[in-house]
């Protein structure tokens, strides 16, 4: 369960204050599939980073599963990221010198799992995204879609309840993008909470609901299946409900 | 997270940047080779010199005129010493039964000449027992004759090199030579002895002690060597010698030193030399350490987004610190190991070429090298690793 209450994220640029997020109040229940949309610079990534415990609100409260995130120390935050949250990035973020399997196993290393068990779990996870034949390949030898599937295997290997994807299909062609989205939907269907930042209406349509940001504020909430085109979605004259 | 896993992870980063890894490795290797081979050389010099002295036996006492206040230094250097006479030496031998031999020595320098050829040499005025305490061998002829110490016969025993320079291949024994202004007859030629106690015995001439004193125009001996029956008596004999001298001179105006004391002060001087050399070599290790730090700083800034990723995946600060620290330690210890092997090879080669110098790195130097190269990596790896651990995950992920 994600609880955001009057969350602000303010950057200080010299004398200027820049509000990347302002007055964000939102509740996301377990198992929900939510898309976050908005023009470039509207604060989508900032919001996702705060939810993912990579960043902290300047003001306001954020509770994850009932725990006040502001009260956690760096080690506890790392623990939350390790066990509760899986990240998927637009640019994949695989470690280039490690094989696909070694990349998938990284979180298990941080969890202190012994090598034999790690290998077994890593292979299962890689198999689940259909990439076992590529286990020994370096990221540079994989296609974009394959890289993102490795990243999904890595994000899910610790069995987190929450998946955060920042434009997961932004660097993919439509076919492999579709494959990745299918995988994410499947994970959501199996009970994981899924938050996807996207510019793509067809991605947003898969979500239960869509949150639209503009200038750091939530300006609109709509159902996923009602999303048609960006122009109507981002239109300024409609007040936030 | 297991340390082995971090090590493996760190190793992959080093392997990926082969050229950079190699360059910083070379820095450490050079430093370590310098430490190993230079300290080996210093240690070799120390052992060479002390071996030379030790070969002379440890049952010798040296009596020098003059009393020096600070113990441990070389006496006879400061102050105007009182006489140490032949009578004094005789008295010592007479009164102290543990003294097996007492050998007076009068040192001076003089020109020696035969026909057209000549050179300057050290003249040692002494007695036949000198041959025993110094373990001298003869190439030809006889050593100095036994008899009354006061009788200064015009005879001389010459070193091998002196003989060669004055007589070439010709026979020297029985020939007349001039020593200083004195006409003398050559009694014998010493076999090659090399350097003993700072004197190259190949380049000296030996005359009866009375002759030596007269040539130097002095009444005081330069020193006397006492051979003592047993090493256990050394300290007792040393005290008795002083007592005898005080009785005769009414004051303690001689210094008695043991072979051991000379040896240990020489040895400690040479040890300081080794330390100085080690210090210089350690500087090169420090330079190598700074090299490692630079490499690690570059590595951290290049891998900023990787650090961000690791944080997003749930790595703690401690784990990230360890990743980069172990990378640096791996680098420096690998350099240390390679340097040690290479340094050892250099020393082996050196001793093969110059077997006279028993060069070998002292154990402390080898231990220090291992410790220091490990420590260098830790010390100079901490700052970059700390930087990595402190990175803000959001900016790091964006590569900032
Ligand atoms: N470290 C920072 N320092 C200053 N300003 C920042 C920083 N990070 C983000 N911002 C600003 O905060 C605002 C929101 O940024 P954010 O990255 O969340 O936007 P976004 O909606 O994800 O945009 P995009 O669609 O381009 O990814 C932007 O105006 C951005 O310039
Ligand atoms: Mg963004």
Condensed summary:
With 241 residues, chain A is an alpha/beta fold. Helix content of chain A is 34%, strand content 27%. Chain A is globular and about 50 Å long.
Describe the structure.
- The complex is a heterodimer of chains A (241) and B (400).
- With 241 residues, chain A is an alpha/beta fold.
- Chain A has a domain at 2-84 and 160-237: P-loop containing nucleotide triphosphate hydrolases (Rossmann fold), CATH 3.40.50.300.
- Chain A has helices at residues 44-51, 74-83, 100-110, 115-128, 144-156, 174-189, 201-204, 230-234; strands at 2-13, 16-28, 33-37, 59-64, 67-68, 85-89, 162-166, 193-197, 209-214, 217-223.
- In chain A, the strands form two sheets. In chain A, strands 6-7-8-3-9-10 form a six-stranded mixed β-sheet, sandwiched between helices. In chain A, strands 2-1-4-5 form a four-stranded antiparallel β-sheet, with helices on one face.
- In chain A, a hairpin with a 2-residue loop joins strand 9 and strand 10.
- The longest helix of chain A is centred in the C-terminal third of the chain and has 16 residues, at 174-189.
- Chain B has 400 residues and is of the alpha+beta class.
- Chain B has two domains: 3-52 and 264-397, no CATH class; 82-252, no CATH class.
- Chain B contains twelve helices and twelve strands.
- Chain B is elongated and about 100 Å long.
- The model of chain B is unreliable at 75-79 (pLDDT under 50).
- The A-B interface holds A 49, 52, 54-55, 74-75, 78-83, 87, 89, 93, 95-98, 106-107, 109-112, 114-115, 154, 158 and B 1-2, 5-6, 9, 12-13, 15-16, 305-306, 308-319, 393-394, 397.
- Magnesium ion binds at residues 44-45, 166 of chain A.
